Amino acid sequence: MNKQKLAILGSTGSIGTQTLEMIRKHPDKFEVIALSGNSNWKLLVEQINEFKPEFAVIGDPAFYKEVKASVSGTEILVGPKNLPEMASHPNVDTVLNALVGFAGFESTLAGIHAGKKVALANKESLVVGGELIRKALKNSNSALIPVDSEHSAMLQCLVGESRGGIEKIIITASGGPFRELTKKQLEEVTVKQALDHPNWSMGAKITIDSATMMNKGLEIIEAHWLFDIPVQQIEPVIHPESIIHSIVTFTDGSSKAQLGLPDMKVPIMYALSYPKRYPLDIPRMDWSKAQELTFEPVDFNKFPCIRLALESIEQGGYSPAVLNAANEVAVERFLNKEIDYIHIPKIVEKSLANIHLSDSLNPDTLKQIDKETRRYAQSIIK
Ligand code: NDP
Ligand code: MG
Fold this sequence. Notes:
The protein is of the alpha/beta class and 382 residues long. It has 16 helices and 12 strands. A hairpin with a 4-residue loop joins β10 (244-250) and β11 (255-259). The radius of gyration is 20 Å and the shape is globular. NADPH dihydro-nicotinamide-adenine-dinucleotide phosphate (NDP) binds at residues 10, 12-16, 37-40, 59, 80, 98-100, 103, 121-124, 148, 200, 202-203, 205-206, 264.
């Protein structure tokens, strides 16, 4: 069997390290061609010395010298400008995009233009540029496979089905750490509490997005572009146990769900093995034991971020990119303890109301709106 040749963007992050953990166990199936990190240069060096990629990108130029001096036989490139090149490199079959935020968009597009299989964890790519990504997919023989657990569940339910048979998609949400708090109590929550997710251990940005439920809003937009399904047919439901990762209901009233213990290795591996399955040595559900699977509706009043995300996709054009940029700024400021949790939706809402661009959508104008929104969001925080 030919080995799948991988470029892993964001290999030093939560998704990136879990991907390498699985690759380590399947040396017969995968070969690492390229890796990238941004600030965690020590981990990047360890990864380079273990996996011996052809090349690696260190995003932050401050660490170039250290990386260069600690490895041999791997070409070291410096700066995020090399990431799209990494995603379109001729020696690469599959791009696993585990970058966080808008920083991942250009590489997703580059991978698609180059006809690569793109395993996408970077949901922000589809949120900001879903329309451009869909267009690019039409003109390429690339495949875009989700890594996000809910979207992997949807894909697994949709294999063998026709689009016309789909009635709706139920996207499940854990509800995050603040599900049971009142609106009043949310005024007091700390960064530490927000980072303490009940079911998943993830990078800081997505953990905060889960606490505000912006994550579910981003994921509805992600599902819309991935599966070409109207947003009105995607229904979020709280499922605190995170065992059912999403459900598809068909026009004959039948529903399919994908289940499993919450473990990102499953959707990461499925994205790499799709349409096949490769063995994974992880704990299984014990179906012989009684267990409760519970559901409740989403409280849009308590978690306004999810409502704002839905409004942005309804407005279309640049609005989701504005939503995303304002959210990235707000989350970073919250993590730095410069604003409170309840300020996050306010900053997003204000940005959506005030930033507009009528130019036609393309990667350059997308960059422009991202930059402008960031500037605006920073200014209102001041
Ligand atoms: P992490 O923050 O753990 O990792 C992000 C990676 O991107 C790191 O390798 C980081 O480098 C690198 N990076 C960060 N900023 C930049 C930048 N500006 N330029 C270049 N590289 C950068 O994030 P996660 O792994 O948690 O998430 C990655 C993506 O996957 C996100 O879009 C997230 O929403 C999505 N996702 C994550 C899940 C999870 O379980 N973690 C689940 C579902 C989706 P360094 O650390 O060296 O600075
Ligand atoms: Mg998810």
